[in-house]
Amino acid sequence: MSVKYVPVQWNPNKWYYDAALLIGVVLFLWIFLYITPEALSHERPINPQVHNARAFGACAFVMLSIILCIGPLARLDRRFLPLLYNRRHFGVMTCFVAITHATYILNWYFAFSSSDKYSALLFANTSYGQLAGFPFEAFGIFALLCLMILAATSHDFWLKFLTAPVWKSLHYLIYFAYFAVVAHVSLGIVQDQQNPVLLWIIGIGAGSVAVLHLAAAIRERVAGDPAGAGGKWVSVCGVNDMTEGYAKIAQLPNGERVAVYLNEGKLSAISNACAHQNGPLGEGKIIDCLVTCPWHGFQYNVTNGQSPAPFTEKVPTYRLRVENGTVMVDPQANPPGTYVEPLSISSGGAA
Amino acid sequence: MTVADALVMLVQYWLIAGAVVAVLFLVIGIDRIDEDARGAYVFRPLLVPAVLLIWPLILWRWFVLETGRDNWAARHHPPRRQHFYVAIILAVLIPLTFASGLSLRQTWPADVAPVQLSKPAGEDG
Lengths: 351, 125
Hints:
The structure holds 2 protein chains of 2 kinds. By secondary structure, chain A is an alpha+beta fold. In chain A, about 45% of the residues lie in helices and about 10% in strands. Chain A has helices at about 10-35, 50-75, 80-85, 85-110, 115-125, 135-150, 155-160, 165-170, 175-185, 190, 195-225, and strands spanning about 235-240, 245-250, 255-265, 265-270, 285, 290, 300, 315-320, 320-325, 325-330, 345. In chain A, strands 2, 3, 4, 8 and 11 form a 5-stranded antiparallel sheet that branches. In chain A, strands 1-10-9 form a 3-stranded antiparallel sheet, with no helix packed on it. In chain A, α2 (about 50-75) packs across α9.
């Protein structure tokens, strides 16, 4: 949250998350390097540099696949939301594993000529006109560059400075990076792999990412937030459909989403997009007039869209009225932090 | 100079420009555009890698905030619609790419004799 920036806002949940991550990475590398070396085609003589490069490369691929599965899994089933909580640390660790993989490759395959190793990486294979023997390293370089940009911009400062929409647009690079990684391994290690274990890992990892994203997208289309209807005022739902302490989310004509809450018998409406990472505020529950974002725990007062002191985040609010038992919202958002008198559902007036 | 050397040099110049922007932004700019950064110094070295990589974007946002052109409404409008298209494109491209890789694979016994595909450089056809 805001107040003063610190390098990392540690809390017990982040410690547990990162500890589990670290244990997972060490376990993966240990299994690949020492328990099942044949999975990396080590039945043939191989030197330690290539040995390590393959293990770190496989680990980075699996980590990236898991990261990309977390988003759609959380959209399909809320029980996966805890995995989303500290996904940025997951991404940063993946970047370091990928850099280690690239360093082993550079310091073995490209380090023993008279040319600069970075130049050698770029000119060693320039057969860009053919698929067989395509310089798959180019895909790896692109993916690594994307991962570095994502990891470097993971601090909360960048979210606030760039704004969540710009930050999220920048972080769409993860999809380009993942496609590049799939191309990197498909035209690289897959061509040289005799043992099927790694092929299965790549196939299952990439397949899971593709299938889960497709499933989440279809579900969003079929059972997503309903579009509000009407002219100047947009209908959200019937008053009787509201549940105490929870929200109904509706899409406005301009594509934005509004979350309308019933709190102690009164209606309030704020933007559905959290000021932190644009998480879905309407999926949070109200406690003491504060709604908690299900992604990272940011809180807002539903009557004025402001975080409780000393935090300073604000989201836009909306005016409401009840007409013939239907909750209506004015699609014109109020500036973030604007107080709107909660609307009693029994009064049926405008607020 | 080869194309590869030129690319490496370009990257070096990009990083040097990024280092200059990093010094200016982290010493002067950040205090001017974000009140939460005032008096907070320990976290600033963590920001250096991002400035090195995307300094043009940093300069643009700095300009927008400095000149009061920031649009508060846009801050609360997440780009959610692209998720659908990204999912469709991923679902097509990922299996296609992996299948292409598999179809290119050559089967071989481990001790197959190597076949030279082209003549060594410098030899005439």
